[in-house]
Write a structure and sequence with these properties.
Phenylalanyl-tRNA Synthetase, Chain B, domain 1, 6 domains, alpha+beta, single chain, five-stranded antiparallel β-sheet, eight-stranded mixed β-sheet, Phenylalanyl-tRNA Synthetase, Chain B, domain 3, 798 residues, OB fold (Dihydrolipoamide Acetyltransferase, E2P)
Length: 798
């Protein structure tokens, strides 16, 4: 939202400086994104008169001018066709910087003739697109005066970020109201702001308008003005619109933009000569089309609200008007539309059509439903003042949603919820200055029609604290636990921090993706449980059921830009439907490995791709960082249809406790994301990792065993289909008191091994306690190991 300082001061009676205004805006939650003063980039440019003009001796298209900028004649070489003696224009002195290209003007010889500056065009000063000649000012323009002062351009432009809940600040007046409540001045009455405009003396019946779609357009007010003269708007209006990034079009159109930005009230003006019958707010018919003011044709459907006459659609209601019924230079009779459109309808239509506009931004946030009559009157008064004509009566169709709202408020809540002590009198004064109706506190507070976002006492606390000062909210430390250092993070946050650092230390780059994905992307992973009713776009319609969709898209973007090896990870939440039908979200780490694991080289030969074992190695390392009992993990089954058959797995603490899945992506899924070659991915479900039974500060210090461990090797003949992990787990559990580890170190099938079997060799580590093992004890442990393996069909290999 952009506005100029002078525009603000039309609504706010204040002597505050620019810095004070900027500081106050940030204090009340209207974050200042930028400030620009057009006069600063026009420093060094003055009003000047051309005294003489003569042909350049060495160039047919150049002239040698004598220019007076207030300090005596200067010689200037100029190529503009309209340069002539007596012309008054804008002169750039040596040392000035041309805004359009950043060129610093210097004294220089042009085709052998010295030139001491430059006469400027509109485009060179970024004041328009005209570049056919130099600027021509009125003959009585004061020579030697800074051009920025003469053109009234010394007016800072402030750009503030308006959060979606502050629809009341989508107009300059709403911002002025907030600053007045902050104590920066006094909000001028709106009647005083528009006092200089002519009064409306209605003559004749109002235009014919009606409503058939009360859901999308509850209220439709209109007034016609006959006998207007349309054309370029006055300089003051053009300057104001240009300053905030609006292109002046014509007086009638510029009036609607002026009211939209100044008062937050979008309007539309129709050329009545183009209308066939009265206007109606109705649902569009499937397949209807409209050529909008942006020059594009849009195909509509039955969910969209439109403004139409007896023959065709003229307006995508509340978003953009049609090209053929807009005000033109020859327009003489106009219909001014001032309607209320429901925010939900506007948002849905805008998203379906991928069409945004200043009007849509305001209507989908919610404009003031009680500002129809007054907004229409101000627009009509401006039309009469700038275009002339005679106004009709006002036609009112429907009723805007202006039912009174009140919130029960106890001022003690401000201290209880925000920790800020503010007297009841001060709280009442703040709320009153913001437009709320306050009789006595505690009591009912009437909510103004322009504050759609306020529906509870907590919102009123926020308003009080925002104006009183967020810096007054005390910093309260977390509670202390006796004998323990002050905690700075929860156990879950500490786990997340460890895993993030571990992933980065292993060479993975962190990605931060949207939590929303497209329906197509979600479909590759079985679909999403939660579809947004009001998505940002069609590509962000589903809450992600997996982190892999975003990571694969990020991998593709990196590889499209020449990355030969991509190693990405992300920690975030995946969203799904819980067993009871409610929404649920779980903290997850996802990673993707794509491209080259090792580049080609004189030692390694060809570049090597990633494989499923790389995915398993990453996952085991990250599980260890998360605090999972890695020694007890079981590798079971495949990870699902998203992975290549036979090249994936899950890591579990039992049949149902899945901690992670990993593997090589199915080739069809990789192709769906435009990824070539082998792609390895995985997800670690951090919510499933069991919490440590003891906090780190309660663990006893590590004491190494007194006696050395003993290692024994066992080779078993097992059925070919038996998973090695099952055998290792059986061996490890044969004697939990003494077996500290079991590790597969050899797999063999071939000569000497019966058909249908394979040989698995396991190294077993045994840890003695208070005394060394005897031979009998070692034999007993070995027997228990062989017996445990035998339950799986394994026999000790001779």
């Amino acid at each position: 939202m952009k506005f100029t300082l002078s525009w603000l001061k039309e609504h706010l009676e204040t002597s505050a400086s620019l810095d004070e205004v900027l500081r106050a805006l940030n204090d009340i939650g209207l974050e200042v994104e930028g400030v620009e003063n057009p006069a600063e980039k026009l420093a060094g440019f003055k009003v000047a008169r051309v005294l003489t003009a003569a042909p350049h001796p060495q160039a047919d298209k150049l002239q040698v001018l004598s220019v007076d900028a207030g300090d005596g004649p200067l010689q200037v070489v100029c190529g503009a066709p309209n340069a002539r003696a007596g012309l008054v224009g804008v002169f750039g002195l040596p040392g000035a910087t041309v805004p359009a290209n950043g060129m610093v003007l210097r004294v220089a010889a042009i085709r052998g003739v010295e030139s001491n500056g430059m006469m400027c065009s509109t485009r060179e000063l970024e004041l328009g697109e005209d570049h056919d000649g130099i600027i021509e000012l009125p003959a009585d323009a004061p020579v030697g005066v800074a051009f920025a002062d003469y053109a009234h351009l010394d007016d800072p432009v402030i750009d503030v970020s308006i959060t979606p809940n502050r629809q009341d600040c989508m107009g300059v007046r709403g911002i002025a109201r907030d600053l007045a409540a902050k104590g920066l001045g006094t909000l001028k009455p709106l009647n005083a702001v528009v006092a200089g405009l002519p009064k409306v003396a209605p003559q004749g019946q109002g235009p014919s308008v009606r409503i058939e779609d009360a859901e999308g357009c509850p209220a439709f007010y209109a007034q016609s003005v006959h006998g207007v003269t349309n054309g370029p708007s006055p300089d003051w209006l053009q300057r104001r619109l240009k300053a905030v990034g609006q292109k002046p079009i014509s007086t009638l159109v510029d009036i609607t933009n002026f009211i939209m930005i100044g008062l937050g009230r979008p309007l539309h003006v129709y050329d009545m000569a183009s209308l066939k019958g009265g206007l109606v707010a109705r649902k569009a018919k499937d397949g209807e089309q409209v050529l909008a003011l942006n020059g594009k044709t849009y195909t509509l459907d039955g969910s969209m609200t439109v403004i139409a006459d007896d023959e065709t659609v003229h307006d995508i209601g509340g978003i953009m008007g049609g090209e053929h019924s807009g005000a033109q230079d020859g327009t003489t009779d106009v219909l001014i539309e001032c309607a209320y459109f429901t925010p939900e309808t506007i948002a849905r239509t805008g998203q379906k059509l991928a069409l945004t506009s200043d009007a849509r931004q305001r209507f989908e946030r919610g404009v003031d439903p009680a500002f129809l009559d007054e907004g229409l009157e101000i627009a009509t008064r401006l039309v009469l003042a700038l275009c002339g004509g005679t106004a009709s009566e006002v036609t009112r169709a429907g009723q805007p949603p202006v039912a009174p709202r009140a919130v029960r408020f106890d001022p003690a809540l401000t201290l209880a919820l925000a920790g800020v002590e503010v007297s009841s009198e001060r709280q009442a004064a703040i709320l009153t200055s913001l437009g709320f109706g306050v009789d006595a506190l505690p009591g009912d507070v009437a909510v103004p029609s322009w504050r759609r976002d306020v529906d509870g006492a907590e919102d009123l606390v926020e308003e009080v604290v925002r104006i009183e000062g967020l810096d007054k909210v005390p910093s309260t430390p977390l509670p202390r636990i006796p004998g323990v250092a002050r905690p700075t993070a929860t156990d879950a946050q500490k786990t997340e921090r460890r895993v993030r650092r571990a992933a980065a230390a292993r060479g993975l780059n962190e990605a931060v993706n949207w939590s929303f994905i497209s329906e197509t992307e979600a479909g590759h992973f079985g679909g999403g449980d939660w579809t947004l009713a009001n998505p940002i776009s069609e590509d962000m319609k589903v809450m992600r059921p997996t982190l892999l969709a975003g990571l694969l898209s990020a991998a593709r973007r990196n590889m499209d830009r020449g990355a030969s090896s991509v190693r990405l990870f992300e920690i975030g939440r995946r969203y799904f439907r819980a067993n009871d039908g409610s929404s649920d979200e779980r903290l997850t780490l996802g990673f993707v490995l794509a491209g080259e694991k090792r580049p080609r080289g004189w030692q390694g030969g060809k570049a090597q791709p990633f494989d499923t074992y790389d995915g398993k190695a990453e996952m085991l390392a990250l599980l260890g960082a998360a605090g999972a009992p890695v020694a007890r993990l079981q590798m079971m089954g495949e990870a699902g249809s998203a992975y290549h058959p036979g090249q994936s797995g899950t890591l579990r603490l039992g049949p149902k406790a899945i901690l992670a899945s990993y593997g090589v992506l199915h080739p069809s899924l990789a192709r769906a994301f435009d990824l070539d070659g082998v792609v390895v991915a995985g997800e670690l479900f951090l919510d499933a990792v069991p919490a440590s039974r003891k906090s780190s500060f309660m663990r006893p210090p590590y004491a190494p065993p007194v006696l050395q461990p003993v290692s024994r090797d066992f080779a078993f003949l097992v059925p070919h289909e038996l998973e090695a992990d099952a055998l290792v787990r059986a061996v490890r559990g044969a004697d939990k008191a003494t077996i500290t580890d079991a590790r597969l170190f050899d797999v063999f099938a071939g000569q000497g091994v019966p058909e249908g079997q394979k040989s698995l060799a396991v190294e077993v580590s045994l840890q003695p306690g208070e005394k060394s093992f005897t031979e009998a004890e070692l034999k007993g442990i070995a027997d228990r190991i062989v017996a445990a393996a035998g339950k799986l069909g394994a026999t000790l290999r001779g």
